[in-house]
Amino acid sequence: MSRRATRLVAATVAMLGLSPAFAPAASAGSPVPSCKEGYFCLFEGPHQTGRVLLAEDAHIATDGFNLRELDDIEPPIFPRSARNPLPNDFGCIVRLNDRPHFAGDEQEVDGFGNHELDGRRVGSLTPDCG
């Protein structure tokens, strides 16, 4: 019986080791990307996952912000999600154009917080308040 019990224990330990609940944190998936507070960030993956493709300091103050325009992002990027630090009471959006110099089709990131994008090319970006 002891040989059978030993095999049962070994099999149980092996199965627990392969279980996601008991897997080491390093194998739990890709690390959470870093987007500093106050930065406008574009991410490679959905739900703010994957590499940070762009991180721009929005220089937010109580009376405004200074997110610089990027008129020719090279190489172009293809983000799937964004994090917008601009407070809603500023009444601003960030326009993401698929071509340099604010040309071509655009996606809008409006409102504070996390946003999903469709993975289209981004060749330029500009904040738009008004």
Q: What can you tell me about this protein's structure?
A:
This is Peptidase inhibitor family I36. Keywords: Signal. It comes from Longimycelium tulufanense. The protein is mainly beta and 130 residues long. It has one domain (29-129): Gamma-B Crystallin, domain 1. It is 13% helix and 35% strand. The strands form two sheets. The protein has a four-stranded antiparallel sheet, with no helix packed on it. Strands 5-4-7 form a three-stranded antiparallel sheet, with no helix packed on it. The radius of gyration is 22 Å and the shape is globular.
Topology:
Elements: H1 2-18, E1 39-45, E2 49-57, E3 81-84, E4 92-99, E5 103-110, E6 113-116, E7 124-129
Shape: globular
Number of distinct helices = 1
CATH topology: Gamma-B Crystallin, domain 1
- Gap from first CA to last CA: 79 Å
Number of domains: 1
Give a quick account of the main beta sheet: strands, pairing sense, barrel closure: 4 strands, antiparallel
Per CATH, the class reads Mainly Beta
Round the Cα radius of gyration to an integer and report it.
22 Å
Task: Give a nutshell description of this structure.
The protein is mainly beta. The protein has one helix at 2-18; strands at 39-45, 49-57, 81-84, 92-99, 103-110, 113-116, 124-129. It has a single domain (29-129), classed as Gamma-B Crystallin, domain 1 (Sandwich).
Features:
130 residues, mainly beta, Gamma-B Crystallin, domain 1, four-stranded antiparallel β-sheet, three-stranded antiparallel β-sheet, 13% helix, 35% strand, globular, signal
